Amino acid sequence: MNRPPDGPARRLTGPEAHERRITELEKRVTFSSTTIGLLFALPMLALIFVFFYWPSGQALFWAFTLEQPWGGGNRFVGFRNFIQLLEDPVYWGSIARSLVFGLSSTVLAMGVALLLALFTDRELRGSRLYRTVFVWPYAIAAPALGLAFRFILAPEAGLLSLINHAWPGLWNPALDGKDAMIAVIVAFSWKYVGYNFIFFLSALQGIPRAQIEAAAMDGAGPLRRMRDIQLPLLTPTLFFLLVINITESFQDSFGIVDIMTQGGPARATELMVYKIYFDGFKGLDYSGAAAQSIILMLLVIMLTVLQFRFIERRVHYK
Amino acid sequence: MKAKLFAAAALAALFAAGPAAAEKTKIDFWFGNSGDIAKRVQEQCDRFNQSQADYEVVCTSQGSYDASLQNTIAAFRAGKQPTIAQVSDAGTLDIMLSGAFYPANKLMADNGIDVDWNDYFSGIRAYYATSKGEMYSFPFNSSTALLYWNKDAYGKIGKDHAPATWEEAAADFKALKEAGYACPLGFNISRDEMWQYEEQFLAVHGEPIATKNNGFGGLDAELIFNKGKWVQFVKDLKGWYDAGYAVIKSKDTGQTFVEAFAAGDCQTILTSVGDHGNIGRTAKEGMNWGVAMLPVYEGTARKSSFVGGASLWVLSGKSDAEYKAAAAFFQFIAKPEEALTWSTVTGYIPVRNSGYEYLVKNGFYDKAPYQGRELAIKSLTASPADGTTPGGIRLGGLLQIRQEISNGMQAIFVNNADIQASLDEAAARGNQILRRFEETYAGKELP
């Protein structure tokens, strides 16, 4: 409104003038050359290159060599690193365990988060408090989280040792592989419940109240409204979180495993990403770890493609 | 703001005015110890810095041996390496083959400092020296494994000495159990404990872990720990475990075996002499305990145990002035007085004869809190280093090999897997690691 009068726009008044100005503005933002656009994109591209493509390229290169850790040189060995891994039954075991871990923790983290979000959305007593508190776990670093859960779940001294007082020997993640797996799944899920919760809650609050109220007037109870209105409208969020949770469970679990079980007992919690961490950072086998990362990357890509191919079809975008 | 600027300017002027301060050669020293030991290393650095005006060593703890090695390698690859880096026993071979270092013996000779390398305990020297006996690094924090026993509990079963053989130990464990003790032997089978339960066991029995003199003779060594007396030991240990004489105590169960021993919950443990100080400080009030050398099986002539811990390496690519500073630092920490302070404040043992003798002369080992630590020296020097038994382990990927053995042990103890088959599998998988390592360094000669 305070725009100083200039050029032809000055002679026109009213809505016509307004429209004219907009067309002029639109014309002005169209660039004939792509150079300036590229210039604007350059910093971001450089960042992506430095922090993503460069290291990935390095890993890809190492995966086909035997690299000396101190940088003394390397030998090209073709696909041998991959063949060695894929011929190893123990490695296939870690792939299977990663799948079990990924699916279980995703189901647990999303299930609990959805339930909590539904409750909070119904504005049950204390929901204002939950809304803030539930996000915190996501901000806790994996090692701290692992330590806390190690204390909580310790069979002799932890909180869960009460179980062993009632039923001796029932719970022992130190000596029982299944218990150890449950322990890391619970610890990992606990962290992601908070993350998922935020997304679910905001999606639920985005559902028009009118629809829910209309359903209520038609006599649908809370459960029926959840099933027929809220959940179908949540599917885009559900799908997004499914992809994120599965991806993260394959990549973000090594810190928790390292602190809680170190892959044991007897390899029961040796996940793919923990093996990469151990072989690369502790064992100094850079090439073996690089080859494993490539396999992990392919697996995660494959899982994501599968999800988009088969699950996304059932997602209703508004 | 102005005041700040003024202060900064004044400070700058001060530095410019003091040429002595400006000429100080600064070098970095990265190490892996954490907690109390890190504080002790820092104190040693401070003493060096205060002892002279020419050099300043900046000591930085990287949190753990693994992290320190990882950070040092990353820094080296980026050309920003520290002058001195601590490398643990498991990382020794990698750096030895890397050529990324300035050999310790050459460093001292080049800087005109005469070092009596024979002053190092033979067992310690043997572990870190090349196959030709040259020292490329300086042994730093050194330890070995000992048996810790609760004198009160053993007194209840009529014993006034720790078991010297495993047969005796088995009888003691049984008697302790029958006397109502819930945990005669506390132990664990994670990667870290393979050191005392496997490597040290084989060392004191004079048995090889691998062919080629435990790898000193070449990169084509093969693991053979699954063929000798150790198999019998694993069987015995499993028997004790099943009978309730031996109990797994770890962070995961809620109490480590060291904590369990200090609390009086477990009556016997095997751990590093480095824990001696810690147990002394945390032991239950009034508890009588002692240490002994690791037991051997009857009819075995005891051999020297291996040294554990880490040594200090000087990395390549630094200036002459920095090397001079490093040499001065090494000369400083070699002093007998430093050995006394170091052994007093940590559980680590002196690494040189001269240091040890100085400690003896000062009555160190007669003082109650340090009594028994001389057994570590005795254990390390139980047999002459004449080359008839391996003086150490020179295997690539040693950490991963320990992990494989630990996985085999866990399969045996947790899943009741067949003992021989599990150990064979661990050896076979370990050999794969060795072959990968050999191929990575193909064409390189083991020094």
Rg of chain A, nearest Å:
27 Å
Main sheet overview of chain A:
2 strands, antiparallel
The largest beta-sheet of chain A arranges its strands as 1-2
Query: Any idea how many domains of chain B?
Result: 2
**CATH H-level name of the largest domain in chain B... which superfamily?**
Periplasmic binding protein-like II
Low-confidence stretches of chain B: 13-21
Instruction: Kindly state the number of beta strands of chain A.
Output: 2
- Oligomerization: heterodimer
In which range does the helix fraction of chain B lie?
Answer: 40-55%
Shape of chain B: globular
Provide the number of structural domains of chain A. Answer: 2
% residues in beta strands of chain B: 5-15%
CATH first level of the largest domain in chain A: which class? Mainly Alpha
Low-confidence stretches of chain A: 1-10
Question: What is the average of the pLDDT values of chain A?
Answer: 85
Signal peptide (chain B): 1-22
Keywords (chain B): Periplasm, Signal, Transport
Subunit structure (chain B): The complex is composed of two ATP-binding proteins (UgpC), two transmembrane proteins (UgpA and UgpE) and a solute-binding protein (UgpB).
InterPro entries (chain B): Bact_solute-bd_prot1, SBP
For this entry, give a set of tags.
heterodimer, A: 318 residues, mainly alpha, MetI-like fold, 2 domains, two-stranded antiparallel sheet, 13 helices, 2 strands, flat, B: 447 residues, alpha/beta, D-Maltodextrin-Binding Protein, domain 2, six-stranded mixed β-sheet, three-stranded antiparallel β-sheet, 20 helices, 11 strands, 48% helix, globular, SBP (chain B), signal (chain B), Bact_solute-bd_prot1 (chain B), periplasm (chain B)
